[in-house]
Amino acid sequence: MGGGRELGQSRIFEQPGGCTTDVTPAGKCDIQSLRSVKRTTNAHRRIERQEVDRMLMNHTNQTEDDLFSCYSPSVVSYRYFAVLWGCAVTITGTVGNLMTILAFALDPRLRTRFNVLIINLAIADLLYCTILQPISVDSYLHLRWRSGELWCTLFGLLLFLSNAVSIITLCLVAVSRYLLVAKRTVFDRVFSDRGLMLLLASAWALGLASFGPLWSVYVFVPQVCTCSFHRTRGRPYTTILLFFYFFVGLTCVGVFYLLIYKRVQIASQALLRYRPSRRSSRRKPASSVQGTDDSGVESGMANTCSCEISSQADLTQSKDVIPYKMVNQSTQSSATSSNPSAVNRPPDLTPAPTSSTAAALTSPSATSGDDGEFKRVTRMCFIVFLCFVCCFVPFMLLNIADKHNRAPQVLHMFCANLTWLNSCINPVLYAVMNRQFRQAYHLLLTRAAVPFTSLWTRMISF
Hints:
Layout: E1 4-7, E2 10-14, E3 20-22, H1 31-67, H2 78-106, H3 113-142, H4 149-182, H5 184-190, H6 193-211, E4 218-221, E5 226-229, H7 237-274, H8 312-319, H9 321-338, H10 355-362, H11 368-401, H12 409-418, H13 422-433, H14 435-461
Antiparallel strand pairs: 1-2, 2-3, 4-5
């Protein structure tokens, strides 16, 4: 009864380990045996607790490995190609964008208002190539993210900040090119020195304000082996952002370049119609007097000039085109009165251009040399925009079409790797399509090679 049993006059209670405790003085339990049993029980409990903790720790580590792993048998061989690709992008992009910034800082001819936008684009690409791209290469090499959760979140923020600034800068470049040929006075107000600094600061602030609220949504994405925002957790905000930047922004850039093309075509046709009437009074191109600057807007230096926009003297000349026609007609009438034979001469049937067309025709961009320079710079900017679109469109279309991640992981990785090229291809385009950037790059490489050349000369002399 009551957990014990009756034995004569005493009540005996069973204890763990087979030991009994007699409540009568005659029956005593071995105290040492009881203590040993308690120690054994506690030891077993500690061992069990350690085993449970070890199992939980192993489960946690396994979960973290699963969260930050992009391993798949289908991408084991492809990762080596991605690593080589990433290394080439890192080296080319870092060296090229750094040379672009140094060329702008050291060459006075390149320090123009338009080239400030080019430098802002180079800074955004340099941020990606020097900081983000090496980490992407490491994740592809090991097929897992090894930099921790905090850096994964920061990586995602910097990635989209760089892309946002690039898109905004491309929009500013397109708008500036259009205002150069359409509304010069508006260009001078918006893209003044103070206005440029405000625009560039606003570009970075807008990118940070757009993608900063997604701080808790940036995760590791195994399909592309990098950190980005979660596909569904941030909706609909992420969908609105991508639509605004990649669709609306890039569409606006394309529209402005289309408008530029139409304006240039109209000016060229008007110039061809107007040239015969100005053969006797046409002045020589500005390139015969001073070197043209095919880098953009004038720098304000005494020895440089812009190839796209007219100077104040050219604007004054453009305003005098119509009075010149009137003076010419009055001269002809006076000549007719003094010379009767001039009555039979046919009049000049070429119509005088309007004030806006005349301004375009008499500006340096309307002359043969400067018009070619303007077209080359605009063509270079347009190709930079096309390269950006070609790098990102396959990745965007794949993510839209493959909502359930049914496409092969290799295809996702390849489209993601294609976006890497955007950060390193711009300096190559500048060198190929812009004479002054090409000369500045050559000068920088020559200066950098001087120590190695002198060292090689000394080694040969010995």
